Amino acid sequence: MTKKIVLYVLLSISAFIMFAPILYALSVSFMSADDINNAALLPSDPNVQGYLDAAERIPLLEFIFNSFLIATVTMVSQIILCSLAAYAFVFIPFKGRNFLFILLLSTMLIPFESTIVPNHVTILNLGWLDTYQALIAPTLVTPFGVFLLRQHFLTLPKELWDAARMDGVSYFRYYLSIALPLSKTTLGALSIFAFISSWNSYLWPLIMTSDDSVRPIQIGLKMLVSSQASTDWPIVMAGAIIALLPTLLILFFGLKYIRKGLLSGGVKG
Amino acid sequence: MKPLKKTFVKELKLFGMGLLYLLPTFLILGVFLFYPIIKTLQFSVSDVLDGGIVTEFVGLEHFLSLFSSSAYLNSIKVTFLFVLYTVPLTIMLSLFLAVIANEKLKGNKFFQMIFSSQLGISGAASSAILLFFFHPTLGTINNILGYFGIPSVEWLTSPDWALFSVALATIWMGLSLNFILFLGGLQNISKDLYESATVDGAGYWVRLFKITIPLLSPVLFFVTIINFINALQSFGQIHILTEGGPTEATNLLVYSIYRESFIYGNYGLASAQAVMLFIITLIITLIQFKVGERRVHYQ
To answer: What is the pLDDT of residues B159-181, one digit of tens each?
Structure first.
């Protein structure tokens, strides 16, 4: 009994420390300047002025649309391309696949941050600065995604494959109607991961955009913050809440996929 | 001769098909990963103009000037300190969260969800929120301290505190990913082990240190590596919270690359820094494999 009470106390304190800043940000986003100066916990007269002002300061709806577009395309593309590559590594016995797989694995060691200078030059020379394709193209596929799906494909029963081959099922047919449907959980985890990390990416969009038309919401957030001289906190908090809400909801609903997906592949190895 | 020819054709067909499945992946990695790696190496030993035009081979000049630049040496130092502040604490705290959230209790699903929440929140949003918490006069942290009569701290604006504050923010942001991995690892440990240990009279702490932690070591190993890599690559929180300042106190390696190339326009020097970042990441990962592999128990 005592153990239970101690655990509940520890859990509650931890949950409070973890999540209170988010809840307080939500509260501040509805506050007036007076409330903030008085260090109020809750808005005395809740209003959505912060949200309206944020939308006036930056093209908020456009930024959100951009983020959705970029994250969705990235997600769909990663599912298709990563699964095709992973499938080839597991099911198509061609010469040199081990070499290619090791090559792919070794790229996971290279920080994307250490290649941004020439990547910026590439995009510049393609004339792609301030375009959607510049923001999307480098993340159409990730070695991590290929690795995760390969680990999963390796766990599919061998008998299934043998039986299907016996029946003359083609490689592509097996991929489409057997391998993919049996990988829903891992594909779910990868989709959520891809969407969230694209939505939340920061450095790459920062150097790719100077124009509002294609900017994602994360960069918009920095624009709200950087007018520091008279930082209007309800505006900043409103922006932060809008930027975090979609991915937080996706995470809450998709958590079980992420957990199962990551464990079947990432860790057990 | 015939069967040999037939196998050869079959092999060739398989090879072609394999490459076809892999083509898009390697095309994209080629353009945005393999090619830039080679280019980074080339830029790091050259003078580079805007638009990536290489004008002159300068050998190791950029690297030499990095090692004689106090700003860059400081950047390495603060990155090292930052890793030291963030990695061990993030791992210990998230392991603690995973252990308490893994107990059979009513409502543990709710706590698991709260502890996972940061994974869905961008670094930019978290940083914007913490910017308010760290504010010297209006900020929540100083308000709370003031309530207990503790004098205000210049969290982000004093060179003594800024790195610590950014590290604190990073720990908070990094807990969730580790928590999810640890919790998964804990749930994979077979219940029978605990039961037989309990029968043998092992108490809570003995079970924790003799069963749980050793069996969790593969996850612990994996988590340690990704934490080091994430810490070395921190950028968003620096850009929003401190922009590398005050007086270079939070000028971490990636921020330094960003500033050198996209603010000062020194592509050559920035590329030399990028090569250094890669080498440092590689060395740390290799050390971990050397040290870690020996201590990892696989079930």
So the answer is: 889 999 999 999 999 999 999 99
Nearest to A110 by CA among B127, B8, B274, B46: B274
Determine the Cα–Cα distance for residues A72 and B115; give it in Å rounded to an integer.
26
Shortest CA distance from B269: residue in chain A: A117
Task: Answer yes or no: are the C-beta atoms of A45 and B145 closer than 8 Å.
Answer: no
Chain B contacts of A206, Cβ < 8 Å? 239
Alpha helices in chain B (DSSP H): 2-29, 35-44, 61-67, 70-101, 108-116, 123-133, 140-147, 162-188, 191-199, 204-207, 213-215, 217-232, 236-241, 253-258, 267-295
**What residue ranges in A206-252 does DSSP mark as E strands?**
none
State phi, psi for A31 to the nearest 5 degrees: -90, 170
Q: What pLDDT does B56 receive?
A: 85
For the segment A5-43, what is each residue's pLDDT rounded down to a tens digit?
Answer: 999 999 999 999 999 999 999 999 999 888 888 888 888
A30, two tokens:
């509805």
B247 Rama sector, left if φ>0, alpha if ψ -120 to 50, beta otherwise = left
Cα B69 to chain centroid distance, Å, stands at: 26
Q: What is the band of B2 on the pLDDT scale with cuts at 50, 70, 90?
A: low
CA A207/CA A220 separation, integer angstroms: 13
Locus of tokens 């004098």: B151
Q: Is B209 helix (H, G, I), strand (E, B) or coil?
A: helix
**Which pLDDT tens digit goes with each residue over B265-274?**
899 999 999 9
Asked whether the predicted pLDDT for residue A213 surpasses 60, the reply is yes
Report DSSP state, residue B298: P
For residues B257 and B280, is the Cβ–Cβ distance under 8 A?
A: no
Nearest to A267 among B103, B184, B240 (CB): B184
Verify cis geometry, omega within 30 degrees of 0, for the bond prior to A246: no
Residues 6+ apart with CB under 8 A from B213: B220
Residues 56-115 (A) with a CB less than 8 A from some CB of B:
81-82, 84-85, 87-89, 92-97, 100, 104, 107, 109-115
Note whether B65 contacts A: Cβ–Cβ < 8 A: no
Q: What is the ipTM of this complex?
A: 0.89
Nearest residue on chain B to A111, alpha-carbon basis: B278
Q: Which of A37, A61, A18 is nearest to A239 (CA)?
A: A61
Closest CA to B176 of B124, B271, B101: B101
CB-CB contact of B212 with B186 (8 Å): yes
Range B188-209 burial, b when 16+ CB lie within 10 A, else e: ebeeeeeeeeeeeebeeeeeee
Does the beta-carbon distance from A109 to B188 stay under 8 Å? no
Q: Which residue has the tokens 């809008």?
A: A242
Count of residues in chain B = 299
Q: Which residues contact A101 (CB under 8 A, 6 or more apart)?
A: A89, A150
Residue range B83-101: average pLDDT?
95
Q: Quick check: A58 and A222 in contact, CB under 8 A? A: no
Chain A neighbors of B133, CB-CB under 8 A: 21
